[in-house]
Amino acid sequence: MVVKSATKKKLMDLGVSEEYAHKLADDRKWDDVKILTSGQIAQICGIDSGTSQEIFNVMAASGKRSRAATKTEKTIVRRRPASRRRKKKTLPLQQYDSESKMKEILRDIDVDDPIYQQLRDVSIEMDAPITPRVLGDLMEGLRARGKTKLSKSEAKKVIESSMALLAVSRADPYEAVGITTAQSIGEPGTQMTMRTFHYAGVATVNVTQGLPRVIEIVDARKVPKTPTMLIYLDETNSKGKPLNTDEKAVRKIAAALEMTTTLDIAQLDVDVTQRHITMKLINKNLRIKAMNGAEVRDKLSRALRLYIQADDEDRPKVLTIIPGVTKEDDLASLTSDPPTYTALLQLEEKIKKLRLKGLAGISRANIQGPSRDTGEYYISTIGSNLAVVSEFAGVDRSKTYTNNIEEINKFLGIEAARQAVINEMSDTLEGAGLEVDIRHLLTVADVMTSEGNYRAIGRHGVSGTKHSILARSAFEVTVTHLLQAGVIGERDELSGVTENIIVGQPVSLGTGSVDLFYIPQNV
After folding, report:
1. φ and ψ of 487, to 5 deg
2. Second CATH level (architecture) for the domain 260-357
3. How far apart are CA 234 and CA 219, in angstroms?
């Protein structure tokens, strides 16, 4: 038999005499000793029942104190996340400034161009409702044809011609715009391929384009396959110094945005025999991430709630983590009570997934630029987190963009999501070399967002919520829709296209929308 020194020491610390502690610790751990009854203690130590009852009471009181301490400690741990949540603040509402808003709307239009100003003045004089965007396109078209100035009569002819073309381009009442839109997008869609876009300066990163991207958009996927962001910065920081033209400052913000895990800055080594995990910090990676060994140790200790051993207190290079060791004093009981293999594996998985720095969801942040015209830098990311990125100091919220339409919907609203659908569809089709009328993309975006939510064009979205029973059943799950409509006594008014085609009568479009009656007049 071998006396457990740790158990004997604990009993003596409780006030049990060395003789009795020695006998009780004979080949017994503390977990085995603390469950002994008063009779068993008397039998092991060879003492009377009164003395054994006193030892039993001492150990029982110790167990109550330890449970109370553990309970108190757990309560403190539970409060920590709550305190962090209270620190979060909602962004204040920005004051609406009509002048600055108009500047943002017109930032892609050269409003100082003489031709633009002349066309604008003539349109106001003629009371012609032409938008600044259309006037900008007219100005660019005239400049491309070599026009440097216009006479007033020429400007009037341009505006009159534009108004005539705008009138012709409008859809007539009862025109089949839905069918035309489907044909306009569907036919070029058959020519699209599985294209990808390679990110500049980033190895092994391809952004989904082509047909897969179109499917993602019309299916209203919650998270795209390759979410990305374009983060633009303010011209100056809070101290008035240049920000978006300062490469070092932009790199610092990019490093703060990019998510850093333990595997990015250290090499993990699991020692199964000794039941501990060793982290060898990589100095080169630490410098890139703007971190140091002491910072990593502190964040690991707070995240894991464990005691982290270091080879150097000031500048640690090797960190040792042992499961279950929450303080330095616990190291003394490792020989008698080592951690289990399961606990070691669980700790390893937890350390691998631990986020030490940066934002969740943003796996990579790269600097792009500078721009030839302005010398401005911006940040492109792999991954998206629009709500949290917008809280960063120095980020220009009015220009920052993500291809995750669901994030835009949640953070900026359904109008912004509608515009994002148009932008993403247009960019994807143009990237594939296909030309689709913008009005057809507007129609798709309007249908997907008409109910106040970003809905898919499918049985889980637009097609599954049509008012017509026959139109719903014709799409996919026929029996289910017909059975449900029969149970509740639903009625189909046959007002749409699909249901009228099914029953074999003219649809209410074009000539089918007109009822012509001959009323003879008595002579």
Report:
1. -65, -45
2. 2-Layer Sandwich (3.30)
3. 35
Whole-angstrom distance between the N-terminal and C-terminal Cα of the chain?
130
Domain 5-86 has CATH 1.20.140: no
pLDDT for 23-72, tens place per residue? 887 777 777 777 888 778 877 887 877 787 888 888 877 765 555 544 44
Two tokens at 307?
């005691």
Residue of 53, 7, 12 whose CA lies nearest to 34: 7
Is 0.90 surpassed by the pTM of this model?
Answer: no
Helices 132-144 and 114-125 pack at an angle, to 10 degrees, of: 130
Model pLDDT for residues 295-333, shown as the tens digit of each residue: 888 888 888 888 888 888 888 889 998 888 888 887 877
DSSP string over 389-408: HTTSTTB-TTT-EES-HHHH
| Domain residue ranges in the chain | 5-86, 99-169, 175-201+212-225+404-450, 260-357, 466-513
pLDDT reported for residue 83: 46
Tell me, what amino acid is at 194? Answer: M
Torsions phi, psi of 386, nearest 5? -60, -40
The residues near 340 (Cβ < 8 Å, ≥ 6 apart) are 275, 323
Q: Using an 8 Å Cβ cutoff, are 310 and 316 in contact?
A: yes
- Per CATH, 5-86 and 466-513 having the same topology is answered yes
Pick the CATH number of 466-513 from 1.10.150.390, 3.20.20.80, 1.10.10.10, 3.40.50.1220: 1.10.150.390
- Nearest one of 384, 367, 375 to 250, comparing CA atoms: 367
The helix/strand/coil state of 223 is coil
Q: Exposure string (b/e) for 383-403, b if CB count within 10 Å is 16 or more?
A: bbbbeebeeeebbebeebbbb
Q: Which residue has the higher pLDDT, 210 or 120?
A: 120
- Rounded CA separation 71/66 (Å): 8
Region 353-367 average pLDDT: 87
Residue 415: per-residue pLDDT: 93
Mean pLDDT taken over the chain? 83
